[in-house]
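Chains adopt folds. We examine one example:
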Amino acid sequence: MTISEGRIEAAGLEFAYLAAGEDGPLALCLHGFPDTARSWRHLLPELADAGFRAVAPFLRGYAPTGIPEDGLYQSGAIASDANALHEALGGDGDAVLIGHDWGALASYSAAGHAPERWRRVVTASVPPPATVANAFFSYDQLRRSWYMFFFQSPLSDMAVPMDDLAFIDRLWADWSPGFDASDETAAVKDALRDPANLTAALGYYRATIGAGARSPEYDAVEAAGAAHLPMPAMYLHGATDGCMGVELIDDSVRAALAHPDSRVEIVPGVGHFLQLEDPATVNRLVVDFVSA
């Protein structure tokens, strides 16, 4: 199945995207940091073969998608983008939403704020926000999350671009131990090499735990992600994730996915970027779940 490239206007912003399939329900796939829509290139054709129109946008601020004029990057903004893309792409109540990392955070809020748009939801590598509130402050997780706090400092604007964005290579190596990510990080660097794009990507963190700009409108969308999702949802986590420790995935995650058809899967032998490390296993889990 051929993957095509396209552009579409939504939420006042031009989004670049990758897509596979021309007919069927929309399957919207959202990437995280530091990543791009290419992260879904193994899944998109599988979704298309299963009867979906699969679309993976480059998130706001990630080239070649535009830089938003409002300069807002909180997860509620990404969630609002997802729901705007649902409308722009002609999605209906049979659409499914798939998100990894920041895309997962956005998916909780997008589906919680507009549940009529999404029949099923799949998230990976970042569990529902309310479930990690206490565990996040453990020493082990704080040590893994050091970069989030570093991104609040102006020093990060100088350090991250150094040596051709070598910082990104090191994050991938830490988060997905043993995975050769050289092809992946080369594409990510292309999306973030322009200082405006890198500032946007760091802005996601500054809006979340720092003094970055926020909007009351997006705050309301973001807050919807704290509620239990009313539709079936599946959460995936890599057993060797070096970004979000697997010990965070406990009964609270299962309880947050309240629908009786929801499930949690720990994928063995993979880290944070599980959809690239073991696409055969992850694709099967995702396609089987969203097709049910």
About this structure: Residues 4-291 form a domain with the Rossmann fold fold (CATH 3.40.50.1820). The longest helix spans residues 195-209.
